Amino acid sequence: MLRLCTALVLVTSLLVGCGLDETYTGMGEGALPGDPLNPDDSIECPSCECNCAGGDSTVDAGELDVEDLTGTAWRIEEMAFSAPLTGFFGDELNSVIAEEIDAGNINVILHVTGDDREAQTLILEVGAAVAASDQYNFSEDPAAMVCVLTGQLFTTDEAGALAVPTDLMDPPMLPISALLLSGRIAADGTEITEGVLDGILTGEDAAGIEIAGGVLGDMLVSLEMLPDIDLDDDGTPESWRFVGDFTATQVELEN
Fold it and tell me: Is the pTM above the cut of 0.90?
């Protein structure tokens, strides 16, 4: 955390020294620091072709050797955001996230609750978890996500929501709305590769999160990572598209 704070101070100081206006905008109309977080799975994705791994006919979908994945669970082992986090800040934050995952402080679980090969449907529940010995428990009610399954490839059929747990922020989570997931399941079901998370950090949520002594929305703007999503159709973007790559490894859920 100290390393992240130092990085943020250095980057912000450099930008201010270059003449960046310290009066920030883009927090979203009516969104004030301290407002409650509100991940909303009713928000429609503005670009629903953003991560359709199973929709590209040029991709080799492969075949699953496992007849039924129901009950299988994976923990995200690697996660790196590419948008809107860029440059030094993005590299530093992704490095800290990697350390937090390795230390077991960030646990995001994908659990299969339904596998219908004839209908090409995979039902996942996705959420934060805590470790219990060699197993994991969801720490809150997970979000259900219906996916299209084509061979080894899956992609969500409808947008959902996820609060990524992290002590780097206060409250300790990064809420992503309008979330789409995609990835490739290993033939033996033991891992997920080529994973993509694609969603939205709303201006309201960003205004209610503190990070390294500042407000996340302000921090993103100060680092010239400007909002690029206009959810309220007023002609001014107030939210951010968040995109990340991930891999996941099979784990056991406690019964």
Answer: no
One-letter-per-residue 3-state SS of the chain = CHHHHHHHHHHHHHHHHCCCCCCCCCCCCCCCCCCCCCCCCCCCCCCCCCCCHHHCCCCCCCCCCCCCCCCCEEEEEEEEEEECCCHHHHHHHHHHHHHHHHCCCCCEEEEEEEEECCCCEEEEEEEEEEEECCEEEECCCCEEEEEEEECCEEEECCCEEEEEECCCEECCEEEEEEEEEEEEECCCCCEEEEEEEEEEECHHHHHCCEECCEEHHHHHHHCCCCCCECCCCCCCCCEEEEEEEEEEEEEEECC
Domain ranges, ordered by start, for the chain:
64-251
Nearest by Cα to 120 from 69, 75, 159: 69
Confidence check: pLDDT of 94 > 80? yes
pLDDT, tens digit (0-9, with 9 covering 90-100), for 184-195: 999 999 999 999
Query: Omega into 84 within 30° of 0, i.e. cis?
Result: yes
- CA atoms of 246 and 77, how far apart (whole Å): 7
